[in-house]
Automatic annotation (TrEMBL):
Name of this protein: ABC-type polar-amino-acid transporter
Top-rank taxon: Bacteria
ABC transporter domain segment(s): 2-247
Gene3D superfamilies: P-loop containing nucleotide triphosphate hydrolases
EC number: 7.4.2.1
Molecular function via GO: ATP binding; ATP hydrolysis activity; ATPase-coupled polar amino acid-transporter activity
Annotated InterPro entries: AAA+_ATPase, ABC_ATPase_HisP-typ, ABC_transporter-like_ATP-bd, ABC_transporter-like_CS, MetN_ABC_transporter-like, P-loop_NTPase
Keyword Nucleotide-binding: yes
Source species: Herbiconiux oxytropis
Amino acid sequence: MVHIQHVDKWYGNNQVLHDIDLAVEEGETVCLVGPSGSGKSTLLRCVNHLEEIGAGSVWVDGELVGYRLRNGRLHELREADACRKRVEVGMVFQHFNLFPHMTVLENVSFAPITVKNENKAEAREYARSLLERVGLAGREGAYPSQLSGGQQQRVAIARALAMRPKVMLFDEPTSALDPELVGEVLAVMKDLALTGGVTMLVVTHEMGFAREVGDRVVFMDAGRIVEQGPPAQVLGDPQHERTKAFLSAVL
Ligand code: ADP
Ligand code: MG
């Protein structure tokens, strides 16, 4: 579903991704872990076409979402193509950024109606079903400020799902939450991964989640994939010194 091939990314003279190769199969949950500044968020943004890449290619469901040849000639996708492809990737951030002046139901149904021109009644109906799925049935009329952080993040997940994305990217979705609210968000993500068949690429520091829900754990450091494999292997028996050092610091 996602195919990242030989991707390099530079910010000015600073190379932040080095020859990244990563494939995520349909329905798979891949957890991306690693120290701060290792390039995890940048990699997600490349998949979401929020960043231009310096070299390599990124494919989502067999379609090229970004590439640049190694000789430096930039092949720009037409902006309309880029926008269309971006909506096929759902993203959930640390800070949920709901629209404060819209109700929960409006937050979830807004983009399908305005960006994808979905029928209003159908979009609202689907939004209701997604809100039920994230455990927020009955809160459709609430405003974000009336919800807890955990509830707001669950709305943000429903909002991303409402676009019927082919893959969901999560960038530290629980890092900004009070500790007692983390579990309810992880439970929703676990449900999507295990019973929803959703393809997910998740940046997280929640090693319990990675171990229990991840099909694969990928450890990144300094812009490189250092090692990857089944959670029990990478988290329980890491092979590289940098992975060992990171895990002993977070576990
Ligand atoms: P992580 O998510 O693993 O903490 P990031 O992808 O945010 O890492 O950052 C990787 C590197 O890229 C860091 O050195 C960071 O300072 C740099 N970086 C990230 N975003 C930008 C940007 N917009 N401009 C310049 N440098 C950036
Ligand atoms: Mg980050």
